[in-house]
Design goal:
Number of helices: 1
Shape: globular
Largest sheet: 2 strands, antiparallel
Radius of gyration: 13 Å
Structural class: alpha+beta
Length: 75
């Protein structure tokens, strides 16, 4: 993983992605949803747990990356 958030941003742009910075408060919970587009999630700091496809639990920490195909249910 790049050493700074700016370097990570530049790497994602180089990959053809349009990075958006997003944060949540501790203990925030999203209900199950999906998107009509693919999504790449990269944890810069802290941690987050996703449930993907209703059964797969993905625990992410700083430096982890998760790619979701379009219409993949996740929470």
């Amino acid at each position: 993983m790049p050493s700074t958030e700016a370097q990570l941003h530049d790497q994602l742009v180089h990959e053809g992605l349009r990075p958006i910075r997003w944060t949540n408060d501790p203990q925030f919970v999203y209900g199950v949803h999906d998107h009509p587009y693919g999504k790449v999630l990269v944890v810069v700091s802290g941690s987050i747990t996703f449930t993907v496809g209703g059964t797969r639990v993905v625990r992410m920490q700083a430096g982890d990356r998760l790619t979701l195909d379009p219409r993949t249910p996740h929470s």
